[in-house]
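Researcher: Here's a chain I'd like modeled. Treat it as a single chain, no partners, no ligands.
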Amino acid sequence: MKYININKIIILAGALAMAGAHADDRLSINGFGYQDYRQANANQYSGADSRGSWDNNFLGIVMSGKASDRDTVWAQVQANSTEQTRITWMFLDHRFNDNLSAHVGRVKFPYGLYNEFIDNKTLQLSAIEPSAYSGAGDMVYDAYNGIGLDWTSGSLFTQIFAGNVYNPPVPTSPPVCSVVGGCTANPPTAASIPAHSDRRLIGGRITWNTPQEGLRFMLSANGTQGESNVVSPTLGQLYMEERAMLSADYDIDNLDIKSEFNYHKIPAFSGGTGVISSAWYVQGGYKIGLWTPYARYDNFKADNRYASDPSYYQKEWVLGVNYKISDNLNARIEDHFIHGYGLPVGAQETPLNGGKTNWNMLAAQVNFMF
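Model: Modeled as a single isolated chain. Structure tokens:
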């Protein structure tokens, strides 16, 4: 837990809790987190290697305060094993009526199903999120700085938003593996800078709660103005980057089924061919008493031009089981049977053409919320 600063979280939560005791119940504080173990028999990815590590953790505090009958301030402070303690999002929500609200500030990114609870593992079925949400795949964002509108009309829930992408600090301590240079134990700061950065953003999400109980569909899309950081020949070149996701969710009684398709397009630089990446998954779980066995299939392509190169794709079966210890505490264990290593390459933890095509990753996790 090299980067996590629990003291800051505890001090902040304690101070707000004492303030809330005198705030006529206008302040609400909740928390959640997890500790997990990850081990991979080949390729280094997401804190997993052949030795295994318990040094994967997260602690988040979510706070809301009523400024008035129509205005609520929301914020989340988080810390984990790879980043400094930071504010994930913080915004003011103003409710015009029961159907329409607006928000301004750093807002949680409304994209797909998992982004509704991406940090709270207790509410997820598996320990490691689908590849469609992996930061290594550059498919989704944490939050945006800007404004947004939420509108409910019958069975439809519509969200539109605009602003700038929030890019959290990029850790530079772990080894970085470049495309041409291999891995370096102590990389310079510049090694952690992506080849492009995203700026202006506009997007939306529409959710349809169908007449069939527990069944909903969701369409998410956004465009960002990118700026190339590649020194030659495209430094400073601007372009429009596109993302879209189609989601389906059926959650009723003991059955939980989800499937999503995520699409990402970066246009051509200086007459090049551009990049189109995609990811999709199907996931299902069934609750049997305190146990929930589950399975998932993931398919990720970092660049459709190299569909047959294992450095650019990743296909995996995930099999696991979750055990509910209490309403606020659960534990799970899962195994990933993986073909290809596109995500370890995308995370710069395994070099291009330097990984093992067929490999396994084991994850065990304890989750809590309060």
